[in-house]
Design goal:
By secondary structure, the chain is mainly β. It contains no helices and 9 strands. The two termini are 16 Å apart.
Length: 171
């Protein structure tokens, strides 16, 4: 079970999440570890934007002990992600948006969006005593951009790549 709280870069918004991971099998000598993880997260401290996410991950990893001093754990997996995004009432300055605009005040809201995303990820976890280092890469695929345009040609799915490095301490 895990929980997290974080700040969104260059904003006043924060995000909080909860997750649960269950290992189907773990610690077999010649077979990789398999696990399923689920999680939810939500933005808060912002009246302008509300983002709610739900994800389900499938993990495969294998731990290797090195010289009795540390462990290396390469891993890979797939994640299915649902995103619900909506805005509060916004006041544009200057008034520049005609979509959903109120004639009295110029205030508007964005149409709520429901998106499904797919993510492939891989990484390496290194544990030495109580220090853990993680290197991870992820490729996110979304069908949000896969609509024909005026030329009736389908666009390719949107892909976002991300790479992370993390150091943590266990106590």
């Amino acid at each position: 079970m895990d929980g997290n709280i974080g700040f969104i870069y260059d904003s006043t918004s924060m995000v909080a999440g909860l997750g649960l991971k269950w290992a189907l099998n773990e610690g077999f000598k010649y077979f990789p570890d398999l696990a399923v993880r689920g999680g939810v997260s939500r933005t808060f401290s912002s009246r302008d934007l509300d983002i709610f996410t739900v994800n389900v991950d499938f993990w495969m990893s294998k731990q290797f002990a090195i010289a009795g001093m540390f462990t290396l754990t390469p891993y890979a997996g797939y994640s299915l992600l649902y995103i619900r995004a909506q805005s509060g009432v916004l006041d544009p300055t200057p008034k520049s948006f005609a979509d959903n605009e109120s004639p009295e005040t110029g205030n508007f809201v964005f149409i709520p969006e429901n998106l499904i995303g797919h993510r492939m990820f891989f990484g390496l976890r290194i544990v030495w005593f109580f220090i853990t280092g993680t290197l991870e890469g992820a490729f996110n695929f979304s069908d949000a951009g896969n609509f024909p345009d005026e030329t009736d040609e389908a666009k390719l799915p949107t892909m976002i790549s991300q790479f992370n490095a993390k150091i943590s301490f266990s106590f």
